[in-house]
């Protein structure tokens, strides 16, 4: 429902994860007996979790570990891994920089040119470990790097930018024809990011197999502050999922919705699936893993922008192994570990046997639900009061 926010100016109310809650079902299911597998094009995937293409999150070692645990990890082809032969030295420099120096240092580090031989090397390093290999680039570089990645053995390619539309206008560089690109690639293509029904519907018509949904919700992202744009993730996911359902009815082709960013706990992830997500892309939760290259630090893909950085380096700490974060046992009481277990338990409690049934979960507006009855947790800064 639109509201008047001034004379003759209407605005639609949008909702984020903290403003809604899921209603338990009339039937409950043993969490061990729910099916959380999902399908991306012709690929069958064990768990609907993807690690985001950020240098503090995904390197070859992390991607291999994630793949062996059943998930996907996206390697940023325009990051430190493809600019430096010895990325560990550079990553350590970023992790040890002071807060005042971090942004300028990152900007300087990313001035180093991308080396195409390193793109091939990193992808083959992951591929040789026997796991699904995923890599990403911005639209301006997709034609070149997409072919390089494909030839090196990449299984899935991601074209990702802050805001992605089919119709992009520029006289300074060649604009990517998404439809042509998707048809020329021999591997599945994921495209993002978007947050609206209209943009999602147009992107689906390009032939991509999935869409990334989210502009500005990530823990390290400052786009909403710098540019003032974005849509809270609950509304964004529901709108894009609605476009997916319409497109499927019209064409018979299913395009997966991947909610990207803004989820810090298992509860947020459960809500994303209830809103219509087929999978989730997570950054900061995985940046806490011992296997993550950022050494407890995390920075967004737009942080190194030379003129207008739309991200910042944040400290998330190292809280456990990737296996503990995904499968437990949880050693923390704040919902940031055993994310797979949380999703299974959440689905069991709403009576959803699979992800498709999770999409039908009743959602209520409940902005106070995180605080209701939690005065002691809040006062003592434990559990939900952290």
Describe this structure as you would to a colleague:
The chain has 386 residues and is an alpha/beta fold. The protein has a single domain, classed as TIM Barrel (Alpha-Beta Barrel). It is 35% helix and 16% strand. It has 15 helices and 16 strands. The protein has helices spanning 60-68, 87-96, 99-109, 116-127, 139-152, 178-184, 197-204, 223-226, 233-251, 266-274, 284-287, 322-327, 339-350, 355-358, 375-380, and strands at 2-6, 9-12, 20-22, 38-40, 43-45, 49-51, 72-76, 134-137, 156-160, 189-194, 210-213, 256-260, 279-282, 297-299, 313-315, 363-365. The strands form five sheets. The protein has an eight-stranded parallel β-barrel with strand order 6-7-8-9-10-11-12-13, surrounded by five helices. The chain has a two-stranded antiparallel sheet with strand order 1-2. A hairpin with a 2-residue loop joins strand 4 and strand 5. Helix 4 (116-127) packs across helix 5, helix 7 packs across helix 9 and helix 10 (266-274) packs across helix 13. The protein is globular and about 55 Å long.
Distinctive features:
alpha/beta; 16 strands; globular; 386 residues; two-stranded antiparallel sheet
Main pleated sheet: 8 strands, parallel, barrel
Q: Which CATH C-level class is it?
A: Alpha Beta
Mean pLDDT: 92
Task: Work out the number of β strands.
Answer: 16
């Amino acid at each position: 429902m639109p509201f008047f926010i001034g004379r003759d100016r209407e605005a639609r109310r949008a909702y984020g994860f903290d403003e809604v809650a899921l209603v338990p079902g009339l039937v409950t299911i043993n969490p061990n007996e729910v099916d959380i597998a999902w399908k991306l094009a012709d690929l069958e995937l064990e768990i609907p979790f993807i690690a985001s293409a950020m240098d503090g999150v995904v390197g070859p070692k992390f991607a291999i570990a994630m793949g062996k645990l059943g998930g996907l990890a996206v390697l940023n082809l325009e990051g430190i891994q493809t600019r430096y032969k010895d990325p560990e030295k550079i990553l350590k420099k970023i992790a040890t920089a002071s807060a005042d120096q971090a942004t300028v240092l990152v900007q300087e580090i990313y001035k180093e040119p991308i080396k195409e031989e390193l793109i091939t090397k990193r992808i083959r390093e992951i591929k040789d470990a026997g796991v699904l290999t995923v890599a990403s680039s911005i639209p301006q570089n997709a034609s070149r790097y997409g072919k390089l990645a494909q030839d090196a053995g990449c299984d899935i390619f991601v074209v990702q930018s802050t805001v992605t539309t089919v119709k992009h206008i520029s006289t300074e560089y060649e604009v990517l024809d998404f439809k042509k690109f998707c048809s020329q690639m021999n591997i599945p293509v994921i495209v993002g990011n978007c947050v609206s029904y209209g943009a999602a519907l147009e992107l689906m018509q390009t032939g991509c197999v999935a869409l990334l949904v989210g502009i500005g919700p990530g823990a390290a992202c400052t786009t909403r502050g710098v540019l003032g744009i974005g849509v809270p993730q609950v509304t964004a996911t529901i709108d894009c999922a609605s476009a997916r359902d319409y497109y499927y009815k019209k064409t018979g082709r299913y395009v997966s919705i991947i909610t990207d960013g803004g989820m810090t706990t298992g509860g947020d992830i459960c809500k994303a699936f209830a809103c219509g997500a087929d999978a989730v892309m997570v950054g900061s939760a995985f940046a806490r893993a011992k296997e993550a290259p950022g050494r407890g630090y995390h920075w967004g893909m737009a942080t190194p922008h030379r003129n207008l950085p739309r991200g910042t380096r944040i400290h998330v700490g190292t809280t456990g192994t990737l296996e503990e974060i995904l499968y437990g046992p949880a050693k923390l009481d704040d919902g940031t570990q055993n994310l797979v277990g949380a999703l299974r338990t959440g689905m069991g409690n709403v009576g959803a046997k699979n992800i498709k049934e999770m999409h039908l979960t009743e959602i209520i507006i409940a902005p106070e639900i995180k605080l209701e009855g939690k005065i002691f947790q809040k006062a003592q800064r434990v559990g939900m009061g952290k």
